[in-house]
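I have a small job for you when you get a moment. Would you make up a two-line entry for one protein for me to read? No commentary is needed, just the two lines. Write everything out right here, beneath this request.
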Amino acid sequence: MSADPDIAAVEAVLDGDDEAFEQLVLRYQKPILGLILRMCGDPGEAPDIAQKVFLKTYSKLRTFKRRSSFKTWLYSIAMNLCRNELRRRKRWGYTQQIEDTDPGVEPEAEDGLIGDEHKRLLAEGVELLPPMQKAVLVLRIYHELSFQEIGGTLGITENSAKVNFHHAVRRLKEELKKR
Protein backbone atom coordinates (compact mmCIF):
# COMPACT_ATOMS: atom_id res chain seq x y z
CA MET A 1 0.00 0.00 0.00
CA SER A 2 1.10 3.54 -0.73
CA ALA A 3 1.61 6.26 1.90
CA ASP A 4 -0.35 8.68 -0.31
CA PRO A 5 -4.03 8.24 0.60
CA ASP A 6 -5.17 9.01 -2.97
CA ILE A 7 -2.83 6.39 -4.47
CA ALA A 8 -3.88 3.90 -1.82
CA ALA A 9 -7.53 4.54 -2.71
CA VAL A 10 -6.80 4.17 -6.43
CA GLU A 11 -5.05 0.85 -5.78
CA ALA A 12 -8.01 -0.31 -3.67
CA VAL A 13 -10.48 0.62 -6.44
CA LEU A 14 -8.38 -1.24 -9.00
CA ASP A 15 -8.49 -4.23 -6.65
CA GLY A 16 -12.31 -4.10 -6.68
CA ASP A 17 -13.10 -1.88 -3.67
CA ASP A 18 -15.70 0.57 -5.01
CA GLU A 19 -16.06 2.17 -1.57
CA ALA A 20 -12.53 3.51 -1.96
CA PHE A 21 -13.69 5.44 -5.04
CA GLU A 22 -16.55 6.85 -2.99
CA GLN A 23 -13.93 8.19 -0.56
CA LEU A 24 -12.10 9.89 -3.44
CA VAL A 25 -15.37 11.44 -4.61
CA LEU A 26 -16.14 12.69 -1.11
CA ARG A 27 -12.63 14.15 -0.79
CA TYR A 28 -12.73 15.98 -4.12
CA GLN A 29 -16.38 16.73 -4.89
CA LYS A 30 -16.39 20.26 -3.43
CA PRO A 31 -13.08 21.34 -5.00
CA ILE A 32 -14.10 19.93 -8.39
CA LEU A 33 -17.53 21.58 -8.21
CA GLY A 34 -15.83 24.86 -7.26
CA LEU A 35 -13.44 24.56 -10.19
CA ILE A 36 -16.28 23.90 -12.61
CA LEU A 37 -18.32 26.81 -11.26
CA ARG A 38 -15.39 29.19 -11.61
CA MET A 39 -14.47 27.98 -15.10
CA CYS A 40 -17.96 27.54 -16.58
CA GLY A 41 -20.01 29.89 -14.40
CA ASP A 42 -23.30 28.00 -14.63
CA PRO A 43 -24.57 26.73 -11.26
CA GLY A 44 -27.28 24.72 -13.01
CA GLU A 45 -24.84 22.78 -15.20
CA ALA A 46 -21.98 22.41 -12.71
CA PRO A 47 -23.30 19.32 -10.85
CA ASP A 48 -23.82 17.51 -14.17
CA ILE A 49 -20.31 18.35 -15.34
CA ALA A 50 -18.90 17.27 -11.95
CA GLN A 51 -20.71 13.95 -12.28
CA LYS A 52 -19.18 13.50 -15.74
CA VAL A 53 -15.75 14.20 -14.25
CA PHE A 54 -16.11 11.43 -11.69
CA LEU A 55 -17.65 8.99 -14.17
CA LYS A 56 -14.80 9.58 -16.60
CA THR A 57 -12.26 9.30 -13.76
CA TYR A 58 -13.72 5.96 -12.70
CA SER A 59 -13.84 4.60 -16.23
CA LYS A 60 -10.25 5.70 -16.99
CA LEU A 61 -8.72 4.82 -13.62
CA ARG A 62 -6.70 1.96 -15.11
CA THR A 63 -4.99 4.48 -17.43
CA PHE A 64 -3.72 6.59 -14.49
CA LYS A 65 0.05 6.22 -14.87
CA ARG A 66 1.04 7.96 -11.61
CA ARG A 67 3.37 10.36 -13.43
CA SER A 68 1.58 13.08 -11.50
CA SER A 69 -0.53 13.11 -8.37
CA PHE A 70 -4.08 11.79 -8.52
CA LYS A 71 -5.27 15.32 -7.75
CA THR A 72 -3.45 16.72 -10.79
CA TRP A 73 -4.85 13.96 -12.99
CA LEU A 74 -8.39 14.51 -11.68
CA TYR A 75 -8.14 18.28 -12.19
CA SER A 76 -6.91 17.74 -15.76
CA ILE A 77 -10.01 15.65 -16.49
CA ALA A 78 -12.19 18.39 -14.98
CA MET A 79 -10.42 21.12 -16.99
CA ASN A 80 -10.82 19.15 -20.22
CA LEU A 81 -14.54 18.71 -19.61
CA CYS A 82 -14.84 22.44 -18.77
CA ARG A 83 -13.10 23.32 -22.05
CA ASN A 84 -15.46 21.01 -23.92
CA GLU A 85 -18.46 22.65 -22.25
CA LEU A 86 -17.21 26.15 -23.08
CA ARG A 87 -16.60 25.14 -26.72
CA ARG A 88 -20.10 23.66 -26.89
CA ARG A 89 -21.60 26.87 -25.53
CA LYS A 90 -19.65 28.99 -27.99
CA ARG A 91 -20.75 26.79 -30.88
CA TRP A 92 -24.41 27.14 -29.89
CA GLY A 93 -24.19 30.84 -29.02
CA TYR A 94 -24.87 30.31 -25.33
CA THR A 95 -24.14 33.32 -23.14
CA GLN A 96 -23.96 33.19 -19.38
CA GLN A 97 -24.71 36.25 -17.32
CA ILE A 98 -21.78 36.95 -15.05
CA GLU A 99 -22.94 36.46 -11.51
CA ASP A 100 -21.39 35.58 -8.22
CA THR A 101 -21.12 31.80 -8.52
CA ASP A 102 -20.02 31.14 -4.96
CA PRO A 103 -19.34 27.40 -4.74
CA GLY A 104 -18.92 27.58 -0.97
CA VAL A 105 -15.30 26.45 -1.17
CA GLU A 106 -13.42 29.74 -1.27
CA PRO A 107 -10.16 29.95 0.65
CA GLU A 108 -10.49 31.28 4.20
CA ALA A 109 -8.24 34.21 3.28
CA GLU A 110 -10.99 35.62 1.09
CA ASP A 111 -13.76 35.25 3.69
CA GLY A 112 -14.85 38.57 5.07
CA LEU A 113 -12.04 40.53 3.43
CA ILE A 114 -13.69 41.41 0.15
CA GLY A 115 -17.11 43.03 0.02
CA ASP A 116 -19.83 41.77 -2.28
CA GLU A 117 -19.17 44.53 -4.82
CA HIS A 118 -15.46 43.70 -4.94
CA LYS A 119 -16.27 40.00 -5.34
CA ARG A 120 -18.57 40.80 -8.24
CA LEU A 121 -15.97 43.02 -9.93
CA LEU A 122 -13.31 40.38 -9.41
CA ALA A 123 -15.56 37.65 -10.87
CA GLU A 124 -16.29 39.83 -13.89
CA GLY A 125 -12.59 40.53 -14.36
CA VAL A 126 -11.74 36.82 -14.19
CA GLU A 127 -14.40 36.09 -16.83
CA LEU A 128 -12.69 38.53 -19.20
CA LEU A 129 -9.31 36.76 -19.03
CA PRO A 130 -8.18 34.58 -21.94
CA PRO A 131 -9.01 30.91 -21.24
CA MET A 132 -5.48 29.75 -20.34
CA GLN A 133 -4.86 32.71 -18.02
CA LYS A 134 -8.24 32.16 -16.38
CA ALA A 135 -7.52 28.46 -15.87
CA VAL A 136 -4.09 29.11 -14.34
CA LEU A 137 -5.44 31.85 -12.07
CA VAL A 138 -8.37 29.73 -10.85
CA LEU A 139 -6.18 26.71 -10.17
CA ARG A 140 -3.54 28.78 -8.36
CA ILE A 141 -5.73 31.10 -6.29
CA TYR A 142 -8.88 29.13 -5.60
CA HIS A 143 -7.47 25.60 -5.59
CA GLU A 144 -3.97 26.37 -4.31
CA LEU A 145 -2.19 24.16 -6.83
CA SER A 146 1.53 24.62 -7.29
CA PHE A 147 2.77 25.82 -10.67
CA GLN A 148 4.11 22.32 -11.28
CA GLU A 149 0.65 20.84 -10.59
CA ILE A 150 -0.98 23.48 -12.78
CA GLY A 151 1.40 22.62 -15.59
CA GLY A 152 0.56 18.94 -15.26
CA THR A 153 -3.16 19.67 -15.11
CA LEU A 154 -3.19 21.88 -18.19
CA GLY A 155 -0.50 20.11 -20.19
CA ILE A 156 1.90 23.07 -20.14
CA THR A 157 5.29 23.63 -18.58
CA GLU A 158 5.71 24.93 -15.05
CA ASN A 159 7.31 28.08 -16.46
CA SER A 160 4.38 28.61 -18.83
CA ALA A 161 2.01 28.33 -15.87
CA LYS A 162 4.01 31.02 -14.04
CA VAL A 163 3.98 33.32 -17.08
CA ASN A 164 0.23 32.87 -17.62
CA PHE A 165 -0.40 33.58 -13.94
CA HIS A 166 1.72 36.74 -14.08
CA HIS A 167 -0.15 37.98 -17.16
CA ALA A 168 -3.53 37.09 -15.62
CA VAL A 169 -2.79 39.03 -12.44
CA ARG A 170 -1.54 42.02 -14.45
CA ARG A 171 -4.64 42.01 -16.69
CA LEU A 172 -6.92 41.61 -13.70
CA LYS A 173 -5.31 44.58 -11.94
CA GLU A 174 -5.68 46.69 -15.08
CA GLU A 175 -9.32 45.69 -15.46
CA LEU A 176 -10.09 46.45 -11.80
CA LYS A 177 -8.43 49.88 -12.08
CA LYS A 178 -10.74 50.71 -15.00
CA ARG A 179 -13.77 49.97 -12.87
User: Anything to note?
Assistant: Residues 1-97 form a domain with the Rna Polymerase Sigma Factor; Chain: A fold (CATH 1.10.1740.10). The first helix runs from residue 5 to 14. The two ends are 53 Å apart (CA to CA).
